[in-house]
Each structure stands twice: as structure tokens, then as C-alpha cells.
Amino acid sequence: MKKLYILACCLIFVFEGFAQSRKYVSQFSHMQSYFNPALTGYEGSNFRGLIRNQWAGFEGAPMTYAGSLEIDIADFSKGSNPDKNALGINILHDQYGAFIETELITSYASRIQLAEKTALRLGVGVNYNTVRLDGNNLTTEQSNDPKVVQYLNGFADMQVLDFNIGIALTHPNYYISYAVHNVNQGAINSGDIFMERKPMVSIVQAGYRNAFTENLTLATNFMYRGQADLPDNVEFNFKILMMEKIWLGAGHRIDYANNFQLGILLPVMRIGYVYELPMSRSYLLPNTTHEFLAVIPLFRKNNSSDRNKALIW
Known about the structure:
Elements: H1 2-16, H2 32-35, E1 46-53, E2 63-72, E3 85-96, E4 99-113, E5 119-134, H3 146-149, E6 155-171, E7 174-181, E8 188-191, E9 201-213, E10 216-227, E11 230-242, E12 246-253, E13 257-265, E14 270-278, E15 289-297
Antiparallel strand pairs: 1-2, 1-15, 2-3, 3-4, 4-5, 5-6, 6-7, 6-8, 7-9, 9-10, 10-11, 11-12, 12-13, 13-14, 14-15
């Protein structure tokens, strides 16, 4: 019965539109370039990996794997006028019920220096999205439903090519950004066209962080997502970094879930964990969600006097 419930939810989302493509990430502040190409390379060159097990314990529940590589060209510059461009690649693999979805996003960002530490960033991303439907896992209460019966006991594959654009105002201690996903609304597609065109998605992100003492750093982040066929998504988090080693935090996705965060800063990487609880009035499955994150800085410069290196988002 549990599996039937999840598959029914997936069918409702998929055959009514592209609603299932909304990916929830509690640690969204650590995956900035996925949501906005203009934030590619904002924290320098690094590698990031994330695993999200949503509604743990339910068969067919969403399972998300994400990874990104960002390269700030300035890390290779030895002159007094460093390059102001960055390149990135994001891969996100999502499994939910009878569907397997993979996104490959390549991004480019360029920054214009407005002041010594403040920059205006512009970015563009190319998004290649593949969706595979396994008809062997479909379940329907209406055996003659024309939307479903054509895919039963078979497979269907669809590919979509689209674009993302973004703009951001950044500083070592704060950022505010705006991005649009699916600018072309999924018009370039191929394969088995079993989904309607993608709606455009508007994304606003903002954050502030500061080291108030040598042993105490505070960081807070906000994200808003809006699209025509889904309710608005608003979430925020708050973190305390202690002794530049351990952070504790909490977050809230309005009307959906609360989460608690724990992280460790190691000399060569930082590791984060989130325990998420759905809200009772959200009508979501009652099981908890677990999320794991790892960030590995690349080409890190040894400069102990730069305290911003210890700050986290």
C-alpha cells in the first residue's frame, strides 16, 4: 500500500505537468551554482557532493544524488589583474517511484568588480535533462486510463535541452541573486514526449555571514522559488560556526518541513548532515529525510590572515 501511494503521487505530478522536477535541498546554501549560474565560483574552485534520502523507509521514495565542480579561473592567475570568469558543471540524479531523472548543467559566470570586495556577477547555464519512465513500476486504479496504459510494462525516455540565466551581487559577507530556469520552457526535446513543456522557474537567493569573534561565526540564508503550476517555495536556514570547527543550524521550508543541521570543518573538506521532519499539516508522508553533504576546496591558498576562508554558507 505504501508503494502504491508513492507511485500514485508520482503519476499525478508527471502526467499533469513538470511539477515533479522541483528538487528540494535543505542545504541549498551549499549548492548555490545549481540554482543560479551567476554564483559559479563564488567560493572559489571546489568540488561538492550531496545525497538526499527523502521519506526514508518508504519503497519508491525519492532518492537524490548531486555533484558539482566549480573552477574559478582566478585561481590559476598569478598577475595583479586576475581573471574574472568561472566555469562549472552540476550533475543531479533523482529517483522517485517509476521515474529516473538526470540533469547535467554546464555554467559560465563572469564578474564585474564594483568595489574592492563587491562584485556584480552574470551567469548562464545549459541544462540537459533526461527522464526515464519504467512502466513495470506503474500502478493505476483505472486500468483503462489512456494517460497511463500506453506506458504499462514498458519503458519511455525523454530528453530536454534548456537554458538558465542569473545575476548576483556578491561580497565575502553577503550575496543576493536572481535566476530563471527553463528559459525556453522545454521547447527543445526528443524521445517519448510524455510530459508537457516545462514552466519557467524564478529563484531568489540571499545570505549574510560574519565572524563576530575568533570562535563564533553566524550565517543565515534565504531562498524563494516560484513557478506557475506549483505553490511558492520559501525556505531559510540559520547556522552557528563554533571555533571554526563545528556548525549547528536549523532551517524551515514554509508549510512543508523543519530541519536540524550539523557540520564539521576539516582541514581539507567540510561535511554536513541534515535531519528533516515534515510538518503534520503539509500532508506529506510522515517519514524523516536525511541529507549528507561534502565540500572539498581546490587550489586553496595558504593565507591564515584571511578569516573569510573559515566562513561558511
